[in-house]
Amino acid sequence: MEPLNSPHTNSNTSDNNSSNNNDNYIYNDSIIYESIEPYCSIHKNEKIILTCLGCRMLVCKNCIVGHGCINGYGVIDIVKNNQLNEIKINELHLKGYLESDTFVKKSLDHCYDETVKKCNSNLYILQETSKKLARFFEANSKSIEALINTEQEANVNNYTFFCEEIKKNSDTIEEILKEDANSLLKDEKKLMDNKNKVNSLIREKNNRFIEPFTTTKLTINEDLIEQIKILSREVFTLTKEEYRDEAKDNVYKHHLMINKFFNPFLCQYYLSHGEPIPKHIGEVAFDSSYIHDKLIVPRHVKKISLYNGFKLPLDHIPEWINVLVVWDIVEPLKANSIPKSVGELYIRSGYNHLIPQGTIPSTVREVFICDITFPLLKNSLGCNVELLKIRNGYNHPITEGVIPPSVIALYFGKLGNSLNNIKTILTNDTIPKTGKLETIHFLADFNQSIPDNFIPKNRSITLQFYDIEQIKLFKNGVPSHVKNVILHNHIKYKHLILPCWISPSIKINYL
User: Which residues, in sequence order, are bridge partners of residue 261?
Assistant: First the structure.
């Protein structure tokens, strides 16, 4: 069923007047089927009863006189129409939830799997460390055990030797005692042998000294054991912490995506797949996974980011959006794509389209340009931009007419911890000969050569440097007609600034 259009419905209705049964989710009437009020807003007491079969306008009987329809009218059942609209809205919501839950489930699986890996890793480290400690104590125990056994082995040898000696002497004595005294007297040789054995035995007995046995005394240091017990508790410590996805090559951090958030360049967005967006959310991103054929944004959302292959034409950006961020989107920005409510425009990494004149409306005051594919064209940035930041690997010359005369503050250099250094080629025509420009910031990573006539001689401009070495980018020093130079965080290098770099006529400030 096509949406029915009331001639009395204003798509710019304020939040208070637009809020009804779907207070959290208020959409353009060209996007979502709109509920129909039963009474005509012009003829207050007349009910809306008909719809024009040609233009689909809703009319009461008094409206027919001036409507001039040539296609005829159809009777409309307002209750049924509103019920159908509610069903359609619910279908969109539910399909969005299905897609959303698919992504949440992937992130849940990832986070859970990582916790399992971490758990197993911790258990492995615990077991291996415990084994190492056990091996240490076992080796120490075996060392002490070897010393105890060595001492006892000396006792065994001593005992065995003297037992054998005693046995030997006993056998000799018994052998001597067996000899008959009368027979010995008859045999002089036997008598002499017997006498020698007795004398030898006596000498051995007189000279024998049995070495004393030794024992080892094992002392256990109970106090030290208690200290070891205490210290052993410090060997393993557990601290509870939230899991964080630290993958550097992916802005979709799973620990954030389980709640539908992701944070490119430290800007956190709620990633919508087409489900209703909670009312407390003000910054929302849409990417290639968005399932609807038109962009649906509630009024409480003021900042949107179109990211990672977002493929819808940019015809339905709501007029209440204040900040627009575009990345590697399929469809280009065109004239009237950006509503007049947008004051800040970010054209970020991967934007692969030209930006023709007339694309950026005069209401945009702040523009941020990153490493886009095509160079900026003359007059492509609009006529009222006051803050312009060219950052993160922008790799094209900035020619005459690119920077509008309306710009007051101009920045060159990368944002945050981006890996892409700016490669902007500055020319003698980069800075407008006339205009409002007051300050040029060279951020810490900027290292491109600056032409001698980069600053027009008729301009009184303040230069701000974030690295002392940047002053040398001016081959012949900072032009003497520059008004001020501000050095950030480098007061300790004051003595390094040579007169040939900055003329004494230029005021230097340190921040």
Answer: 270
Q: Which element (helix H / strand E) includes 106?
A: helix 78-178
Give the pTM: 0.70
Dihedral through CA 389, CA 393, CA 397, CA 400, nearest 10?
Answer: -10
The Cα–Cα gap between 237 and 224 comes to 21
Considering the domain 15-75 in this protein, what is its CATH number? 3.30.160.60
Q: Element (H or E) spanning 284, and its range? A: strand 283-286
Pair of tokens at residue 94: 């539910």
Domain segments of the chain: what residues? 15-75, 106-235, 260-331, 343-511
pLDDT in tens, 63-84: 877 777 777 777 766 667 777 7
**pLDDT tens-digit profile of 401-442?**
999 999 999 998 865 544 445 566 788 899 999 999 999 998
**Exposed, middle or buried by CB within 10 Å (0-12, 13-18, 19+), for 140?**
exposed
Tens digits of residue pLDDT in 303-333: 999 999 999 999 889 999 999 999 999 999 9
Instruction: Provide the b/e sequence for 73-100 (b: ≥16 CB within 10 Å).
Output: beebebeebbeebeeebeebbeebeebb
pLDDT given at position 209: 84
- Burial grade of 176 (CB within 10 A; 0-12, 13-18, 19 or more): middle
User: What region does 416 belong to: left with phi over 0, alpha with psi -120 to 50, or beta?
Assistant: left
Question: Quick check: 264 and 287 in contact, CB under 8 A?
Answer: no
